[in-house]
Amino acid sequence: MNPEIPLARRDVIANRLAQGEPVVAAALAAEFNVSEDAIRRDLRALAAEGRCRRVYGGALPVSGHTQPMFARIDKDRPRKEALARRAVQSILPGEVLFLDAGSTNLALTDFLPEDQELLVVTNSIDIASAVLRRPDLRLLMLGGSVDPTVGGCVDTAAVQAAAALRIDRCFLGTAAIDLKFGATADLHADALFKQVVLSVTEHCVVLAMNHKFTSKSTHRICSLKAVELMVVEHDAPAALVDPLRADCPAIVRAERPSD
């Protein structure tokens, strides 16, 4: 069998998903004159790359912020690093930090202040792994069942562990930021987990990529009044950011990202 044929077929399926089209395994099998098992293998491969979400009988496209964590890590990295450099300036020596699961918060791990006796708490596998490479940092990992979209644990076990903590500064991950509804998340369990973390947190910080202000998500985490500091990109549109200042007055801009 020509190995290029499955790859070409997979590319066609991936292009349809990228255009927002759901796909049905039975229909694809008939179209390409192959078995449904072959199509299911294609869909499994695409799901593993973060390019679709498997459902019964086929697959659905994923939006940018509902891609699995691993698919988001390298996207816009210089911009995330610029946000991180500005955000870590708020950290005080000896603090207990919570780094919420998310690709933007992952960038913080390279810029956390050295030798300040910081304890990093996280529910994120990737963030925990990065912190482990910093011998000057202490790490507390909240365990439980790992959600691949979140990239960490947000189940009952994680909620119970978070409720027993005291956090000085939480770097909260959000799917969207809305003037009326505040910070929101895509998944109900994730929103509930974040609410519990905020209930034991003294200071809340949000690193906001530009697309957060135009994205929409379903589940409310908190109002903007709960956000003590919001760090936005250097070119965040004033028309979107300035109206937020009534509820979140401490909004600062990051420096222009390095090339």
Q: What is shown here, in short?
A:
The protein contains 10 helices and 15 strands. The chain has about 260 residues and is an alpha/beta fold. A 7-stranded parallel β-sheet has the order 6-5-4-9-12-14-15, sandwiched between helices. Strands 1-3-2 form a 3-stranded antiparallel β-sheet.
Features:
3-stranded antiparallel β-sheet, Rossmann fold, 7-stranded parallel β-sheet, Arc Repressor Mutant, subunit A, 259 residues, 15 strands, single chain, 2 domains, alpha/beta
Helix content: 25-40%
Mean pLDDT: 90
Structural category: alpha/beta
N- to C-terminal distance: 44 Å
Q: Could you tell me the strand content as a percent range?
A: 15-25%
At CATH's second level, what is the architecture of the largest domain?
Answer: 3-Layer(aba) Sandwich
Question: What is the gyration radius calculated from CA atoms?
Answer: 20 Å
Silhouette: globular
Q: What is the tally of beta strands?
A: 15
Determine and state the CATH class of the largest domain: Alpha Beta
| Strands in their spatial order, largest beta sheet | 6-5-4-9-12-14-15
Describe the protein's architecture and organization.
The structure is a single chain. The protein is α/β, with parallel strands linked by helices and 259 residues long. The chain folds into 2 domains: 4-62, Arc Repressor Mutant, subunit A; 72-253, Rossmann fold, CATH 3.40.50. The protein has 10 helices and 15 strands. The strands form 4 sheets. A 7-stranded parallel sheet has the order 6-5-4-9-12-14-15, with helices on both faces. A hairpin with a 2-residue loop joins strand 2 (53-55) and strand 3 (58-60). Helix 1 (4-18) crosses helix 3 (36-48), helix 2 (25-32) packs across helix 3 and helix 8 (156-163) packs parallel to helix 9. It is globular, with a radius of gyration of 20 Å. The relative contact order is 0.11. The model has no long low-confidence stretch (mean pLDDT 90).
